[in-house]
Amino acid sequence: MRGSTLTFIDILLAIILPPLGVFLKFGCEAEFWICVLLTLFGWLPGIVYAIYVLTK
Where is the signal peptide (predicted)? Predict the structure, then answer.
């Protein structure tokens, strides 16, 4: 149950603020910077990428 709760919280953060959700999982690695860039281009691409990275 704990793993599913953390995944739910990660996905919720990815929807609200995509780079934050990715940062908490990976730190300042390439995934975070890609998410920041996609979020700057548009909110939806950032959300889609963040959810994809967090669930893969």
Answer: none
